[in-house]
Amino acid sequence: MSLHPFPYLWLIPALPLLGAIINGLFGSRIQRRFGETGIWATAVLLPWISAAIAAWAFVTLARSGPETALYVKLWGWLNVGWLDADVAFTLDRLSGVMCLVVTFVGSLIHVYSIGYMRGDPGYWRFFAYLNLFMFAMLTLVLADNFLLMFVGWEGVGLCSYLLISFWYRDKEKAVAGMKAFVVNRVGDAGFVLGLFLLFWGVAGTWQNPPHVQHPLPDIILGGEGAGATTRAATAGTVVGSEGHSLPAPQRVMMESIVSGIVHGEGAAAAAPLPRTSVKFREVERILRDPARRDAFVSQRWLGLSLVTLACLFLFLGATGKSAQIPLYVWLPDAMAGPTPVSALIHAATMVTAGVYLVARLHFLFALSPLALTVVATVGAATALFAATIGLFQHDIKKVLAYSTVSQLGFMFVAVGVGAFWVGIFHLVTHAFFKACLFLGSGSVILGCHHEQDMRKMGGLWKLMPVTAFTYLLSCLAIAGFPLFSGFFSKDEILWKVFSTGNLVYHSGGFWLYVIAAVAALCTSFYMFRSFFMTFTGKYRGEPHGHDAHASSPSTHDSGLTTHDSPAASHDSPHDSSHSQPAAHSSHLPHESPASMTVVLAILGALAVVGGFLGVPPLLGFLPNWFEHWLEPVFGGSEHFVHWRHYPHAYEWGLMGASVVIAFLGAAVAWWLYYAARSPIPGRLMASGSPLVRRVHRLIYNKYYVDEVYGRVFVDGGVGLSRGLWWIDARIVDGLVNLAGRIGALCGMLQGWIDRVFVDGLVNQVGDGIVAGGRRLRGTQSGRVQTYVYGIVAGCVMFALLTYAVPW
Amino acid sequence: MTIGVPHYLIVSGILLACGLFTVVTRRNAVAILMGIELILNAAILNLVAFSRLVTGAVGGQVFALFGIVLAAAEAVVALAIVLQLYRAFRSVDTTETTELKE
């Protein structure tokens, strides 16, 4: 892969960052001075410029040959020994696709938010966060190395937290944000561990490296040689413009490398392989080298191959970010955030970061069939699991949330069986139709005065035609109706799963196919259920203002016991609204402003036509552009991934099965929920059959996973904390107190010694002097004769001393 | 027998003893002063006596005259003190003027 300098690449993430800084620092003042227009003028414009640059870069990339990547290095970041992380951005064909999706869908959602967030006191804050998210997501996508990607990875997590808890005064929403953040932390720990294992394992530091191509000692090779050469190799492409001033020998070496890179295909072979690296393309280069690859794969630790272990840890990170079992629990709660956020972060872009990670590391995952099997299995399990939960949800956003979890599961199935481009393809189409669905639901929620319960909607087709129509298009897409985008991507996933020969267990492909097909059936059903409940029949909400829905929380919350079709329970109020249209007309749901409907229309159109990018060769009326586009990226992993070959009839048959599934799900939903006419759901609930009710209760309560997690992890954590608190209070504090006591005791002893001996001595001296003085005082009688005795005695004594004592 | 220096010294010693005895035994401050005068005279007598041993010298006699003058001056000062003492205590008894005790 050769690198082409593209000096404007860094602007793609930097412009949203600029917007975030402007609105984050001065937003409240701008909003006071210029109103909301002043806020969105910058916040929406900058992502669009960024999108334009992304498109320009994409075209440039498309023109510069298959094996190229656009590259810009801003500055060296952590260049210590083998660690060679730069702040540098790379746009290859994979990140180019992601970048386009993120910038365009993101910018559209920014436009949508202009209308959706109107009147919110935190308008400026919202757009600052949204821009910051764009920056973090684009950093994640365009990062040249793991560490920079991790910066983006954490950044999107932070923005997700900030935006879920956007209405932080509501405790439930603040808690949802915290839950997302904490669950993501678990995954992030996996990401970091995987990264460490990879970096460590590629270097092979704990054994003698069998691959040393250099006669130099390790210190020199690792510390100077490898670092300098990789740095030179990466800096090579920009050396001409920047003119590095390096010492002469390095300059010579670098120039030879640069010439190697620039001239011809043998470039990769010309640059010596580094010992290890955090750069994606360097790691890929190392693992392409057979000797190094064998050395890496043969390393085992704790009975597992190191490559599997690294992949599993990285996949744990992906499950956290992409809401897969076991870390999916945060995503449904994340619906507490504003709906554009749900669309942008929790459907179209951030949650797909895990899929992107696995696809980005295809060269690594391809080496471990076990890890790939785990990815595919977890993906399939999640797809089915979340889809069944979605069947009975009443909250329109919850339905979409579980749908997202389920669709992400499909993507993981795709990358898990080694069909990386298919996973990315579904990611793209999903970004279109799921963003459209979420934005449609946002439009509905706004129209219905912040009502999210589908049982209180209905009949909105006439009131909100654009929303309804685009929602229908997206439903058709996600359900996989022929020629809609979801059909191509999902059908391709199902076909790849069916024909995979890569799973470690026997005939795994077939079973995963069955699971995925059932999940697809559920998808079709619950999506059309949501459509029919929302848009057909009669409007079931009360024609109320904002204050009235405080009066009906009981029906909202006791969904378990009330009928599934609430037409019977809420029939009267809306009739009165017809009799007094003037009084209540403003309270009826209404179509959203143009800034929102236009976005819905664009996304709806994309949801319809997006699939034509990747038409399977079987149909063949269009070339499969998507696969061809990504082929240079994933081509290197092709021969590690095995496929079973079936005759075309199988493929036709599966495609037919997909179509049947899509129609079947929609038909059942139509039968049960169209215009909320069918009494069956209500009867089923009322039937009192314990089995039905128990199953419904189990699924309605999301398999009690939140409760189990709460019991095991939260209560466990609390219990552990209590235990530790007890140890702290009793043992640690006891030890501290004991030490204190001993100190006090020593002090007392010393004090006693001081008082008795030292003070005693001092006092004794003083007392002695006082006593002596008291004795001597008597000699001063004041009587002169007495003194004379003394004088005489003294004289006599001296006389005697002088004469009587013989000296 | 010739009168020699030792005889003077004996007289001087007796004078000293009388003076000391007076000073020690009398309570009256004036009497004590008189005793002091006797002691002084004993000393002066010594000076005169020892000057006999030096032929042709009059230093001893001169010192004696000085001593007598000194004694007179001393008596003046001492009597003035005694007068002040009397003013303060209405008594010249030294056993009563013991205010410096303790």
Describe this structure in words.
- The complex is a heterodimer of chains A (807) and B (102).
- With 807 residues, chain A is mainly alpha-helical.
- Helices cover 70% and strands 4% of the residues of chain A.
- Chain A has helices at residues 11-63, 93-116, 123-142, 146-164, 171-203, 218-235, 239-242, 248-262, 267-270, 280-288, 290-297, 306-322, 330-333, 339-348, 353-360, 362-365, 369-390, 396-416, 420-447, 460-463, 465-479, 485-498, 508-535, 553-557, 573-579, 581-584, 594-609, 625-634, 648-673, 680-686, 690-700, 705-777, 784-804; strands at residues 2-5, 68-80, 83-91, 300-301, 304-305.
- Chain A is elongated, with a radius of gyration of 38 Å.
- Chain B is mainly alpha-helical and 102 residues long.
- Chain B has a single domain, classed as Helix Hairpins (Orthogonal Bundle), CATH 1.10.287.3510.
- Chain B contains 3 helices and no strands.
- Chain B has helices spanning 5-25, 29-51, 59-89.
- The N and C termini of chain B lie far apart (56 Å).
- The interface between A and B is medium-sized, with 10 and 14 residues.
Number of strands of chain A: 5
The total of beta strands of chain B comes to 0
| Spatial strand order of the main sheet of chain A | 1-2-3
Uncertain runs of chain B are none
Secondary structure layout:
The complex is a heterodimer of chains A (807) and B (102).
Chain A: E1 2-5, H1 11-63, E2 68-80, E3 83-91, H2 93-116, H3 123-142, H4 146-164, H5 171-203, H6 218-235, H7 239-242, H8 248-262, H9 267-270, H10 280-288, H11 290-297, E4 300-301, E5 304-305, H12 306-322, H13 330-333, H14 339-348, H15 353-360, H16 362-365, H17 369-390, H18 396-416, H19 420-447, H20 460-463, H21 465-479, H22 485-498, H23 508-535, H24 553-557, H25 573-579, H26 581-584, H27 594-609, H28 625-634, H29 648-673, H30 680-686, H31 690-700, H32 705-777, H33 784-804
Parallel strand pairs in A: 1-2
Antiparallel strand pairs in A: 2-3, 4-5
Chain B: H1 5-25, H2 29-51, H3 59-89
Helix pairs in contact in B: 1-2, 2-3
